[in-house]
Amino acid sequence: MRLQDIPRHLARRCLGIPRFCRESLGVELRGTRLVVAYSAGLDSTALLHLLHLLRAPLNLTLIAAHAHHGLRPESDRELEHAREVCSRLSIAFQAAHLDIPSLQAASGRGLEECARQARYAFLESVRQEHQADWITTAHHGDDLAEDIVMRLLRGTGWPGLGGMPGVDPKRGLLRPLLDWEKNGLRSFLEETGTGWCEDQSNASPDRTRNRVRHDILPLLRRENPSFAKTSMQLWTLAQIDEEYWSQALPLLPAPMRNFLLASALLDVHQAKRLRLYKTILDSMGPGQVLASHLLRLDTAWMRKNCGRAIQFPGDKVASVQPEGIRFHFQKRSS
Amino acid sequence: MRLQDIPRHLARRCLGIPRFCRESLGVELRGTRLVVAYSAGLDSTALLHLLHLLRAPLNLTLIAAHAHHGLRPESDRELEHAREVCSRLSIAFQAAHLDIPSLQAASGRGLEECARQARYAFLESVRQEHQADWITTAHHGDDLAEDIVMRLLRGTGWPGLGGMPGVDPKRGLLRPLLDWEKNGLRSFLEETGTGWCEDQSNASPDRTRNRVRHDILPLLRRENPSFAKTSMQLWTLAQIDEEYWSQALPLLPAPMRNFLLASALLDVHQAKRLRLYKTILDSMGPGQVLASHLLRLDTAWMRKNCGRAIQFPGDKVASVQPEGIRFHFQKRSS
């Protein structure tokens, strides 16, 4: 299958992918080496074939990576299907058996969180082995809509509320299909006669996410059938503001990231102060900062509640002191 | 009923109202004349009694305004109840019969929109007659949650997505209960033994709003029982950003509001450009600007699509011209 062999509207849509990456994500695809997270389900099958179509014109190197979770009976069949497809397309293929239940038992974390971590660790290992530029995932506009509702429920501030980033250089992640809807991906596969493995359950182990997907999103789509498109627009606004704030905030030298001096907060608008805190907390490592935490810290700082310590997810702490705010990790009690 | 006669935690909460108005809305309540939109339902009954408790300590002048819609059989009973309550509390009372069906027939607009317009026109007439400072309405945190979901569905950008403003000087509107939850208002009434008229239907004539209220919000609250609180935090962030942007945007002299010169857009970040467009469009009058419109206009401008005209709600148009963007009204075809 080549670009010139498929219907013109699909070819045009496919050529929109490098444009989206360049214009909206600031990433040039041409000549890159890409790991494709390929489960053999609808979304990632579309991603694999779309990138395959772009392989020659953009001089891409593709490596498909398949995580075998072993949680569902059809996992073995999916692995075989994925291997065959890649062999037929002459795409390098790598698979890993991830024993999530054992990992979960060892870590004590939730099932979804464990599966996610193990999957990304595997993808990152493939990226390093093949010296690839990016791990590409098939997240699309409907995932974005789901993500926005999840973030709204969780209390994420702005611009985080606009959904997952399209590019995450720290994790080497690229999401080139965020401006596609799931229906568009399905049409692409159907019109090109490409098969995929139907995920029987389509259930996420995260029960909140499941109910958002199966109960809440259908109701939102009933009111606004273009809710995925509306979500993509909100996402676009969020990316614009994300960039604005990254330019508007002062560049803090590394030592200042542990201690935000009072002088650096003087005459700074609250909108900037909140984002300054968030930038520092994010730079400390994983753990999602919520709006309520940031507001609480800012209130404590403005009221000069010295000695007050605000806890953040990921064992991070911000302590209000007379000379400024100290950011540090909580001492774990042994 | 006086502040010193009610349970202390309620008195404290009541005294939080002037603080919320001062700190979050920038409005000093002391010594003001307030029109209270009083339907005799739960929310506005709580508002009336809370403001009544604050009347002596804050030297407030209160005027209750009751709109009799005549749409429901219990309307007459509610009018009488409202009149009696105000007479008992020695609060000036004014009522108006609003004949919504006739107004709707005359205007050709939707029922909800007509009722809303007629209600606010009545409240504004009472405000002017009594030379009052503000019209106060009983919108609370649960209304905010509903409003945020409505705006999310509609495709409102940021900070508009954060919900209705707490103060609208142009319309003389003040919403002093935005940081209360409906449950808190109910508890206040129950603990003080204050009765209200139960709205039998609790249905809005807007079917989308109804389904958001009765189908979608209960599901969101099931995932996050504090969803009203989470919404209030998002609202707080939005107010902070609203203020930030109002300071960050250049103050345009009136003639420049019809024509945004290319020079005023040069080297201006997209985040600012979008908000500049919105400020101008909002200043032209009613009509809600959505994110998609603003993005479309900006794309047309950056691509220098001269001659391109982008339509906005409220018959507003932005025309891209070589020297800048002209904002004007659409000529109505007769």
From TrEMBL, chains A, B:
CC terms in the record's Gene Ontology section: cytoplasm
Subcellular localization: Cytoplasm
One Pfam family matching this protein: ATP_bind_3
Catalytic activity from the UniProt record: cytidine(34) in tRNA(Ile2) + L-lysine + ATP = lysidine(34) in tRNA(Ile2) + AMP + diphosphate + H(+)
Entry keyword Acetylation: no
Keywords associated with the record: ATP-binding, Cytoplasm, Ligase, Nucleotide-binding, tRNA processing
Transmembrane feature ranges: none
GO biological process, one term: tRNA modification
One annotated GO molecular function: ATP binding
Chief place of localization: cytoplasm
Domain tRNA(Ile)-lysidine/2-thiocytidine synthase N-terminal: from-to ranges: 34-214
Annotated EC: 6.3.4.19
Function text: Ligates lysine onto the cytidine present at position 34 of the AUA codon-specific tRNA(Ile) that contains the anticodon CAU, in an ATP-dependent manner. Cytidine is converted to lysidine, thus changing the amino acid specificity of the tRNA from methionine to isoleucine.
Family recorded in the similarity comment: Belongs to the tRNA(Ile)-lysidine synthase family.
Protein name: tRNA(Ile)-lysidine synthase
Lineage, top ranks: Bacteria, Pseudomonadati, Thermodesulfobacteriota, Desulfovibrionia, Desulfovibrionales
